[in-house]
Amino acid sequence: MQNITLRFKIFLLLFILAPHLAAEPADCPSDESCAAGLLEEIVVTGTRTRKSIMHSPVSLSLLTSAQIDRINADNVADLLRYLPGISISDSGQAGLKRIRIRGEEARRMALLIDGQEFTDHREVGVPMLIDPGMIERIEVVRGPASVLYGAKALGGVVNIITKRGGSQPLQANLSTSFDTSTDGFHNLASLYGDVSDFYYRISVTTNRQHDRESPEGEIENTSYDSNSMAFNLGRSFVTSGIASGFLGDQSIELVYENFESNAEVFVEPEVRFTPPFLDFAIDAPQRDREKLGVFYQFEPGNDYLIEGKINVFRQVSDRQFNTFPSLFFGFQQDSAIFTTSELTSDGGVAQLDWRLGMDHHLITGIQYNRDRVEQSRHREVRINLGVPTIEDIDDRSSMTTWAVFLQDEWQLAENWHLTAGVRGYFVDASLDATTRSDLATGDLDDDHIIGSVALLYSGFDSTSLRATFSQGYLYPSLLQLAMGAYAGSRYVNPNLELNPETSDTFELGIRHQGSQWTIEATAFYTQAENYIDHLFCTAADQCLGRRDKKYKNISEAESYGFELDLQYQSMDSNLTPYAYIGWYQRSNHFAAFRTSASGIPDIQGRVGFRWQRGFAANEIWTDMHVRFESSSELEEPGSSVIVREENSGWGSLNANVGYNFGKHYSVTMNLINLTDKKFSTATENLLAAGRSVRIRLGIEL
């Protein structure tokens, strides 16, 4: 308790001193005009309403369309590397990266596509199954957002907002990229436009990346490819007559998305050939997502109801994951294990925004989601190359979640704004059918209420201060509760007695948007309980296999840190220096021991400068930066001893350069790892690419 009190005092001191660090005057010189600053961007994810970043009560970052084009990545995770508090995990799969927010595991993050959640019940977290070429912008909330966005948002939210129609009846966009580190191509073609009250877009992409070239040479089994297609058609219209007072301006839109991918899986030699393994190979030939969604919105413009939103969707995710273990126990045992699964999600959200007074707004909503998982496992085992023994296992499970949420936004007094929210969960999960003899079908349910509160003060020139408290809630997945998971020849048993993971987060922050300085600083503290992990089975667990594991609530975690994001724009120069630095501390509390070696580096960030200059109708720009992180250490329980791993600190010099030929043609060149530094990030298995170039040619018609 003393440690918590001391940290709170430190955060309070930073909160009080922060305005003095941001004393830059807000007004522009009388002979110059101010361009819109980064913190003036309008976002929707932080509060489910349109609000500038400056006045958002949560830690929120944004990637705009222009930034996405300049980063020029072939996958979404590499785009998000550029944002504060984000780290990447790959599990040896270069084509199926996940993201982690402030060190939380990837499964403790909600992934939204146009506000609709993409769920995944796998332990490694939600993969980013959407092509960057489809994306207009990305908004990221760092810290719990479970009150507004559901259980997966315990660690944060990534809301990917896709591209829509254009400004003319017929427009087109073509681009192609080449990456020297993989000898791979990424191609995009799209048609879009706006005809009368209708808007539309159809886009297709192909992505083919071969094995990655690192400073140590080519890394085997790191190739991947994907194909995607997206289509949307919408219409905006105004209701006339009596109904206009109830519905007013309206829009309705149909969206279809299809993403098909496969990835090879790299297995470290020290794992692949360590006894009893003679060899151990993995591949992931299928990781697909298909979605059909409908969006409806109306703005009646009356004195009480501001707007209403309804969206519904069906989403299907297909996965195939194969393992090929060869072991020696005095005899050779070769296995081929093919695991396929299909996750079908039906969901929807209905939201009404109310005006209770001039400066008093209320958001009300109801959310529904039903997930159904069908999983099949086919295993062939050969002893000394003999006749195979065949085993087939089939499971079906489902989870239904209803939730209601309220958020009250109220201006208490001049410059003081209060935002408070509450969410009630009603969860019902079941194992519907199984062919495993050690599992029994059955139902279980859980009800839970969480809340959040934030206070924002905007009485300083171009500066806002905020203090928030938010709770997080994460219900166990279907694999953890009912079905279990396979790791090679090992089975991780489910556990119907698992408790949900929960968290409490305190946060203090400052935002400043002056004529030259843009500053955002955040201090946070999180205490989380009932973390779920898998441990080797004991006699009391009654597992079938002696090498099997079981999901259990085993740990708690305590995290705190400080994030500083700043940039300086000279009034008489096109040069913009910038820096992001994050300091993170995390302590994991296991049943047998406590450790601060969580695998997350103490310090990580990016420092660089941007420069751009326009002449005639053309523009040239560059972004030179160093990405870096300090060394890290990981301690976690093993089968009989504590497992320890270390990762060295590193720094990587990179540059993005581009030239726009008017409004129609562009060339972007990304110079990666210019010093050919050998490194891997603390949360990735694979070595980073060596010195390489990505070049992109784009045409807008």
Description:
The protein has 701 residues and is mainly β. It has one domain (2-700): Beta Barrel (Maltoporin, Chain A). It is 7% helix and 60% strand. The strands form six sheets. The chain has a 22-stranded antiparallel barrel. A five-stranded mixed beta sheet has the order 3-8-9-6-7. A hairpin with a 4-residue loop joins strand 30 (575-589) and strand 31. The protein is globular, with a radius of gyration of 26 Å.
Tell me the layout of helices and strands.
Blueprint: H1 2-21, E1 42-43, E2 51-52, E3 59-63, H2 65-71, H3 76-80, E4 86-89, E5 98-101, E6 110-113, E7 116-117, E8 135-142, H4 146-149, E9 156-162, E10 171-179, E11 184-195, E12 198-209, E13 213-214, E14 217-218, E15 224-238, E16 249-264, H5 269-272, E17 277-299, E18 305-328, E19 332-357, E20 360-383, E21 389-413, E22 416-434, E23 442-460, E24 463-474, H6 478-483, E25 485-487, E26 490-493, E27 501-513, E28 517-536, E29 549-568, E30 575-589, E31 594-595, E32 603-615, E33 618-629, E34 632-637, E35 642-647, E36 650-661, E37 665-672, E38 692-700
Parallel strand pairs: 6-9, 26-29
Antiparallel strand pairs: 1-2, 3-8, 4-5, 6-7, 8-9, 10-11, 10-38, 11-12, 12-15, 13-14, 15-16, 16-17, 17-18, 18-19, 19-20, 20-21, 21-22, 22-23, 23-24, 24-27, 25-26, 27-28, 28-29, 29-30, 30-31, 30-32, 32-33, 33-36, 34-35, 36-37, 37-38
List keywords for this structure.
about 700 residues, mainly beta, Maltoporin, Chain A, 5-stranded mixed β-sheet, 38 strands, about 5% helix, about 60% strand, disordered N terminus
